[in-house]
Amino acid sequence: MESIEYNVARALLDIKAVQLRPHEPFTWASGWKSPIYCDNRKILSYPEVRKTIADYLVHTVEEYFKDVDVIAGVATGAIALGIMVAERMNKPFVYVRPKAKNHGMCAQVEGYLPENSRVVVIEDLISTGGSSLSAVDALSKAGAEVLGMVAIFSYNFAKARKSCEDANVVLYTLSNYDALVEEAVKCNYISEDVVEVLKEWRFRPDTWGQE
Predict the structure, then answer these.
(1) Strands (E), 7-87
(2) Which long-range contacts (CB under 8 A, 24 or more apart) does 198-204 make?
(3) Residue 106 pLDDT exceeds 80
(4) Looking at the predicted structure, is the pLDDT value of residue 20 above 80?
(5) What is the pLDDT of residue 1?
(6) CB within 8 A of 190, min separation 6: which ones?
(7) 3-class DSSP assignment, residue 154
(8) Hey, how many other C-beta atoms are within 10 angstroms of the C-beta on 50?
(9) What are phi and psi of 36, to 5 degrees?
(10) Residue 114 clears pLDDT 90, i.e. is over it
(11) Mean pLDDT of the residues in the chain
(12) 4-203: which CATH topology?
């Protein structure tokens, strides 16, 4: 039986949630040039893939965070799947905005979050880890104990790993960049000759493609 990381990588490739284009790079919002574009919101449009991903997320939460009280989703990409996880586990759900509203209750954490709740964060994508850790910080300031985070996909940037370690945040991901590249070659999605280009980008994403 193949591991979850390869099953998820193949599913993301099949539905074109992840596209690899090393010779015609994408431009991220940060300005980085990238041979990969990941849009995990597409998962929601494919019922079987959506169900499988939700099942894997539940399995991971149940295996590593048995004492969880509340499931939290990071807005906006992880709200829907976070709700699916909470529903399957019969747990309360909240979601975290990128920043607090400037009207109404001025909340950043939306929903009812009891004091000292043990929370697991669901995230769709980990790049540098900045926005994900911001959500963890918001939950902590709201009085929660964040047990850890489970994400669908990570680019495996060293910066993200170090940031999570420095913040004492336990992170598990269903799949990752290395598994994705390996699966893409196996499925003839890309050829072997572009693998080195993809690996090079992963280790210097902030300067790649700007020479």
Answers:
(1) 18-20, 26-27, 33-34, 36-38, 70-74
(2) 198/20, 198/22, 198/35, 198/36, 201/22, 201/34, 201/35, 201/36, 202/155, 202/156, 202/157, 202/177, 203/158
(3) no
(4) yes
(5) 39
(6) 20, 22, 181, 184, 198
(7) strand
(8) 18
(9) -135, 145
(10) yes
(11) 92
(12) Rossmann fold (3.40.50)
Domain boundaries, the chain: 4-203
Amino acid letter, residue 61:
V
Whole-number Å distance between alpha carbons of 19 and 76: 20
Beta-carbon contacts of 145 under 8 Å, excluding residues fewer than 6 positions away, are 116, 117, 118, 119
Measuring CA to CA, which residue among 2, 1, 4 is closest to residue 175?
4
Quick: pLDDT tens for 47-96.
999 999 999 999 999 999 999 999 999 999 999 999 999 999 999 999 99
CA 24 to chain centre: 24
On whether the CB atoms of residues 135 and 99 are closer than 8 A, the answer is no
C-alpha span between 53 and 125 (Å, rounded): 13
Residue 25 has pLDDT above 70, yes or no: yes
> In 10 A of CB 66, how many CB atoms?
9
CA atoms within 13 A on the CB side of 191: 2
pLDDT of 100 reads 78
Taking the C-alpha atoms of residue 209 and residue 104, their distance in angstroms, rounded to an integer, is 44
| β-bridge partners, 27 | 33
